[in-house]
Design a protein that fits this description.
The structure is a homodimer. In chain A, 3% of the residues lie in helices and 47% in strands. Chain A is mainly beta. In chain A, the strands form four sheets. Chain A has a five-stranded antiparallel β-sheet with strand order 5-6-13-8-11. Chain A has a three-stranded antiparallel β-sheet with strand order 10-9-12, with no helix packed on it. Chain A is globular, with a radius of gyration of 18 Å. Strand 2 of chain A pairs antiparallel with strand 11 of chain B.
Chain lengths: 154, 154
């Protein structure tokens, strides 16, 4: 993992890190099970138990060299910046800043960046049909005072 | 849900939408179970089954008015743009573009934007301990040709 992945702080119930600015993602690479540049996975680094998440930069002119589907995991793609095209089950559509796509396990997917700028996106995997409650239903408000130390203000 | 949430295309195995640019998030609001501006949840709109995801803008000077924890769901926060502070179990740290935080159910969390610019972030909920495989392990490469129709090029 790159030195860019700077572990900032952790506690009993959390782990936080800084992966760098979007433009810095091009410095990340994975080598196994295949080579991929500009991709950083978070699950292992942050010890996630319910999801895998990757942050991605896909350079101008790049295309995924294969289609893929999934065994157990639903995927959600969130496009952060740039423009490209996505294809699922043979259907092609444009993606750009603010495009969000849910793909079921069986969806046969691929994408490309046919623009002249980097395409940035987040991909989230979670086990299909695993979620019990969404929105704010799972949250519990804690009735205790909030203390912000003013000398920690940046 | 706002008109900004433009359903673009759907198929048997997917649903895609465009929620607008990051700056447009301030036009979203939720009214139940409490009022919140600049927050859009994706699960219901995209029919997600394994995760809840929200895209958020938190304006300059804003603070969450309470701490919260969760019953079943792990959370991951991804900071997209801007600066602020996060607090978990009484520990405070800075967040900015590229900060990622995994919080277990029991983590007592709150945050604020004490900067002079908008703070943009994504929050993902998934059931703790539900994920079986991460990284690329769950993917299956599909051996079929990729066809991009050039007249669909934007």
């Amino acid at each position: 993992m790159s030195l860019l992945f700077d572990r900032m702080v952790q506690g009993k119930n959390f782990m936080a890190a800084h992966v760098g600015k979007w433009e810095d993602l091009s410095q990340y690479k994975m080598t196994s099970p295949f080579k991929a540049y500009g991709k950083v996975f978070l699950k292992e680094e942050l010890q996630c138990t319910g999801m895998e998440v990757s942050l991605n930069v896909f350079p101008a002119g790049a295309s995924m060299p294969f289609h893929h589907k999934h065994k157990e995991n639903e995927e959600l793609y969130i496009f952060v910046k740039g423009e490209g095209q996505f294809q699922i089950d043979g259907e092609t559509f444009e993606v750009r800043e603010g495009t969000v796509i849910r793909v079921a396990t069986e969806g046969v997917r691929t994408w490309r960046n046919h623009s002249s700028e980097n395409l940035y996106f987040i991909c989230i995997q979670a086990k299909a049909n695993s979620l019990v409650t969404g929105m704010t239903e799972d949250g519990v408000v804690i009735d205790q005072p909030i203390n912000w130390l003013e000398d920690e203000k940046s």
